[in-house]
Structure formats: structure tokens, C-alpha cells
Amino acid sequence: MIQPQHMPVKFKHPGSYQKMCHLVASNIKDLVKGKGGKEYHNRPVIGLATGTTPLGVYEELKKMKNTNFSDTYTINVDEYIGLEPEFNARLKGKEGYGFPQHPKSYYHYMTEHLFRDINFKRSFFPGESQTDTFDSLIAAMGGIDIQILGIGTNGHIGFNEPGTSRDSLTHVVDLTESTIKDNSRFFDTINDVPKRAITMGIESIMRAKRIYLLAQGKHKKDIFDKAFKGEITPDVPASYLQEHSDCTVMYCD
Ligand code: PGA
Predict the structure, then answer these.
(1) How far is it, in rounded angstroms, from Cα 103 to Cα 111?
(2) Are 12 and 23 in contact (CB under 8 A)?
(3) Helical packing angle, 55-63 and 17-35, nearest 10°
(4) Which of 21, 48, 50, 149 to mutate to test the pocket of ligand 1 (most atoms within 8 A of CB)?
(5) Known catalytic residue: 145?
(6) Distance (Å, rounded) from C-alpha 231 to C-alpha 222?
(7) CB of 219 closer than 6 A to ligand 1?
(8) 158: Cβ below 6 Å to ligand 1?
(9) Which atom of ligand 1 is nearest to the CA of 53?
(10) What is the mean pLDDT of residues 87-106?
(11) pLDDT attached to residue 153
(12) Cβ atoms 160, 237 nearer than 8 A
């Protein structure tokens, strides 16, 4: 068993999903208000996740009408591959970058749930550049200040499935059967779920300065306990977060 080398993860018990989401959104607001750098490498950088869990955080952020996000960058942790054949169908986006337009893409999800309402400086997704340059891009921005994460029922963070190594950077993954099954609720049939994705790696995520991992629902309780009260193991990728120096984890029913 690998021993934690840093501060232990902080457990917070906000009491309700709404309070949990409000707490994370307030910390993002404080960061954005406090940082306010105008230089590229000194602007607030928020790491975003998709799925059901972070939706409440996005709802809370949208309520913060007095916060100006126009100097803030966002980085999404993952994106599907294969919804559009190898991104060929991408339309040219702003500043020469292309984004997948497919309604099941995570870019589309973020547009629907956040970007339509909040005007960020710019938003980045793995896959829009070469995998090996995504981590350099994050570093050039000064790194992620706050990373939001959910946890998969198999313990994944981003699409880092069980077995992913601690030193992984942004990479292409084959999704496991359990992830494909979990995500089939967003698609008409399980056959429509992409089998591959591109994700920031464990090391990419661990470089974030602060991390909030949220878990909601009884179906997440076992894996939450395994990840943060059990041993650090590649079998439960979220357990690597026990080595992070500023990681808060929250569970609610
Ligand atoms: P969920 O997904 O928020 O939809 O449960 C979390 C994840 O798979 O990371």
C-alpha cells in the first residue's frame, strides 16, 4: 500500500446537495473575484466536469450575477471520441479551434448547462489540440486553480478508468463496460455510447491547485468510502486524490 505523502483529503458534510454545490460555487466565486489577473498566466482557471453531479454547481454559478467571469478560463476534464468520426465533422470555432457539435458531446453539455449563461474568456477541451500538448496548454495558463470532479461508480475520475497509472497525462482511453453502461442513460441505446474518450490523466488532475470531488446518491457511497477511506490503489483511481495537498471530498444522499 502506498502511504499518503501530503495532507489527508478533507471531508466536508454539507448536509444537502444544494449546500454542497453552493459551497463549491462560492469558492469559485472567491477565486475569480480575488485573482483578477489580466496576464494570460495569471487568470483564474477552473477545471470543469460533466455528468449529473456538477449540474447544481453550474446552477449556483449562474445565480452569481455580480461575478465577472470574462477573464476566467475553463478546462474540461474529458470528451468523447467517435460521436463524429474522429472529429472530422467539427465546425471551426472561435480563434481557429473546432468543437464537436454533437448533442451528446461534452462541449454541447457545457454549452447547454453553463456557457450559454456565463461568458468565460475561453473554454478548452481535451481533444481540440494534440493530446500531448493539452497539459502544456494548462501549464502555460498557470495551472488549474480549482478542479471540480465527480466520481464514477467504478472509481474513475475524468475517464481515468481502473488501472490508470498515477503519472498519466492527457490520453485516449477505451471506456470500460461499467462506464458505458452508466453513461447509456444519456443515449437512446447502449450501442450509441462512444467506446473511447480523451481525458486528462491522473497526473494532469493532481497538478490542480485545489480539488473538490462531489458524490451524490446511495449508489456512490461504497465507492466514495473505498476511494477516500481505503488504500490508494490504481483499482480505484479516485483514491490517488488522497495524495493531493488540497482536496476536499463531499458526499450526500
Ligand atoms: P455522474 O458521473 O455525475 O453522472 O454520476 C460521475 C462520473 O462518472 O465521473
Answers:
(1) 10
(2) yes
(3) 50
(4) 50
(5) no
(6) 14
(7) no
(8) no
(9) 3
(10) 57
(11) 96
(12) yes
Mean pLDDT to the nearest integer, 121-140: 86
51 lines ligand 1 (CB under 6 A): yes
> Residue 30 CB: number of other CB atoms within 10 A?
12
Instruction: Identify the residue whose cell numbers are 472561435.
Output: 94
Name every residue whose Cβ is closer than 8 Å to that of residue 99 and which is 6 or more positions away in sequence.
Answer: 90, 91, 93, 105, 107, 125, 128
**Hey, which bits of the chain come out as E strands?**
10-12, 45-48, 73-76, 78-81, 91-92, 98-99, 122-124, 146-149, 171-174, 196-199, 210-216, 247-252
Tell me if residue 76 is catalytic: no
Q: Is the CB of 152 under 6 A from ligand 1?
A: yes
Tell whether the model's pLDDT for residue 2 goes beyond 80. Answer: no
> Do the beta carbons of residue 62 and residue 33 sit within 8 Å?
no
C-beta atoms surrounding 196 within 10 Å: 12
Q: Which atom of ligand 1 is nearest to the CA of 51?
A: 4
> Looking at ligand 1, which atom is closest to the CA of residue 149?
9
C-alpha cell at 50: 460533466
Q: What is the mean pLDDT of the chain?
A: 90
Longest dimension (CA), the chain: 47
Identify the weakest region by mean pLDDT among 14-23, 34-43, 210-219.
Answer: 34-43
**Rounded Cα gap, residues 123 and 98, in angstroms:** 12
**Is 244 marked active-site?**
no
If one residue of 53, 153, 183, 222 were mutated to test the ligand 1 pocket, choosing by the most ligand atoms within 8 A of its CB, it would be 53
Whether 234 is in the pocket of ligand 1, judged by its Cβ within 6 Å, is no
- Is 156 noted as a catalytic residue in this protein? yes
